[in-house]
């Protein structure tokens, strides 16, 4: 590819990646992983299109890791600039309900 993208173009692509990730719904909670606060970082390599999603899960033994990872790969396949997706699970900082958006809190009845 060897496209050189501006910082602004990369930020716009990251926004589209974030929007795509909002289509990935946690099957247990029925809310997307972005509003749940599970996505910690998006790394997008402007020249190659390689993308790394750093995220956590609500619990360490969460049985949904593979399902969510598959859904992330499907969602990012819709973003044309993304050529390769890697999902890295991180456990620090630990997820808490404080990381949830206002929307997620209201939907789940958490104050």
TrEMBL record:
Transmembrane segments: none annotated. InterPro entries: Fe-S_Maturation_MIP18 (IPR052339), FSCA_dom_sf (IPR034904), MIP18-like (IPR002744). Residues 14-88 form the MIP18 family-like domain. This is Aromatic ring hydroxylase. It comes from Enterococcus canintestini.
């Amino acid at each position: 590819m060897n496209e050189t993208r501006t910082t602004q173009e990369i930020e716009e692509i990251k926004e589209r990646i974030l929007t795509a990730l909002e289509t990935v719904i946690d099957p247990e909670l029925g809310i997307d992983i972005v509003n749940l606060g599970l996505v910690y970082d998006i790394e997008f390599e402007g020249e190659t299109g390689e993308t790394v999603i750093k995220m956590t899960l609500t619990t360490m033994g969460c049985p949904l890791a593979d399902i969510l990872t598959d859904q992330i790969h499907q969602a990012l396949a819709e973003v044309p600039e993304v050529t390769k997706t890697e999902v890295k699970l991180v456990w620090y900082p630990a997820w808490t309900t404080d990381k949830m958006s206002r929307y997620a809190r209201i939907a789940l009845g958490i104050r």
